[in-house]
Design brief:
single chain; alpha+beta; Aminopeptidase; OB fold (Dihydrolipoamide Acetyltransferase, E2P); 2 domains; ten-stranded mixed β-sheet; five-stranded antiparallel β-sheet; 29% helix; 31% strand; binds zinc ion
Length: 377
């Protein structure tokens, strides 16, 4: 296979070294372009194992279209070690979550989308896509130039804009993450919910076609805006451009044996997109609307014995965790006197849990899906 390797400088450090994004692109015959990145959050490593497996697999086959891989999408976060732990979720300088600083480029650039739609509404969809992508390329370039000119290119937006700009050329964007201690699950927007089944995740979180700061949203928002403006002009199209966040288990974990299975979901999506040969299939899965994705905050402080692990179902009334308050021990009955229970208020499935058994009141204990709908193949 013929690979093109490129480097993009993203940050000059205090010591003078420059951190760079490195991209690996493989091209086949004419076809869709796919953008796959991992480790926007520095402690989320499993996506890199998946990327290695996928690159290896692609070397042994023919592809249609092209794929760009960005294994270490946020080198600064990857290098941010505190002891043995990777402090990779938040920018240590600003405190911001690295996956909440992307922009809704059509809005921030004040692009005249109504004018664009009026001028191009007559085009067939495959041509309209090409013209729109070329507009997006120019929009990103102009927006970058404006930020540089006005000295407004901050700690938080250079990397994010570069990733968005690269992703804006794609017909499928896969942002590989993990949870803290988590099962495997997927974020999909409403308009791409049907297609999301080709990624073969057992648990799918359906988010609105709206912007809330994350990479997947920033990559689909230009197409959602276009879809909405076309609809207002009487042309109904569901864009065949998708952007998903794939959650591959727990952070600080890198397992090549599990990645050999994880990669199957992306391979199946690539079949659906026509990039790889073969018939895509689907599996039975569960979906949950974002409004039913609940965080259970810790009702008290203490040491926690978790009774449920990610991926497990629970019922209303089950004891999800036992808390032990060591400031409240009756030495004659040490276990009972210090223990209290956190009970489930409704049925659901554990998706994430706090990796630590030492928690303050108000910390995120579990994230759970409730009111799930089942999809049978
Ligand atoms: Zn993440």
């Amino acid at each position: 296979m013929n690979w093109t390797i490129e480097e993009f400088p993203i940050k000059e450090l205090a010591t003078g070294e420059t951190l760079k994004l490195k991209t690996y692109t493989v091209k086949g015959s004419e076809g869709p372009h796919i953008h796959i990145q991992a480790s926007v959050h520095g402690a989320e490593l499993q996506g890199n194992a998946v990327i290695l497996q996928l690159m290896d697999l692609i070397n042994q086959t023919q592809i249609r279209g092209s794929i760009t891989f960005i294994p270490l999408a946020n080198p600064y976060a990857t290098n941010n070690k505190h002891g043995t732990y990777t402090y990779g979720r938040y920018n240590p300088v600003t405190g911001h979550n690295w996956n909440r600083n992307f922009v809704d480029i059509i809005n921030v650039s004040k692009f005249d989308l109504i004018g664009f739609v009026e001028n191009n509404i007559h085009l067939p969809w495959h041509e309209l896509k090409i013209v729109y992508k070329s507009e997006l390329d120019q929009i990103f370039r102009n927006y970058f130039d404006k930020l540089i000119e006005t000295r407004a290119l901050s700690e938080n937006n250079k990397l994010n804009l570069m990733l968005q700009h690269l992703a804006s050329k794609a017909d499928g964007i896969l942002d590989l993450h993990t949870g803290p201690t988590a099962t495997r699950y997927l974020y999909a927007a409403e308009y791409e919910a049907e297609v999301s089944h080709y990624l073969k995740f057992k648990y799918n979180l359906i988010i609105p076609n709206e912007y809330a700061g994350s990479m997947d949203e920033s990559a689909f928002m230009p197409w959602v805006h276009l879809m909405n403006k076309l609809k207002a002009q009487g042309r109904e199209i569901i864009p065949d451009i998708e952007s998903f966040t794939l959650e591959f288990g727990s952070e600080e974990t890198f397992r090549m044996d599990e990645a050999a299975k994880d990669v199957e979901s992306i391979v199946n999506y690539l079949r659906y997109k026509g990039v790889l040969e073969g018939m895509p299939d689907k599996i039975d899965s569960h979906s949950c609307l974002l409004e039913n994705y609940k965080t259970i905050f810790s009702p008290k402080g203490g040491l926690v014995d978790y009774h449920f692990e990610p991926g497990q179902k629970f019922n209303k009334g089950d004891t999800l965790a036992s808390f032990y308050n060591l400031k409240n021990i009756d030495p004659n009955d040490p276990i009972e006197s210090s223990r209290s229970a956190v009970k489930a208020e409704q049925d659901g499935i554990i998706i994430n849990r706090c990796p630590s058994s030492s928690v303050h009141q108000g910390m995120e204990l579990y994230q759970v899906m409730t009111k799930l709908s089942e999809h049978k193949v």
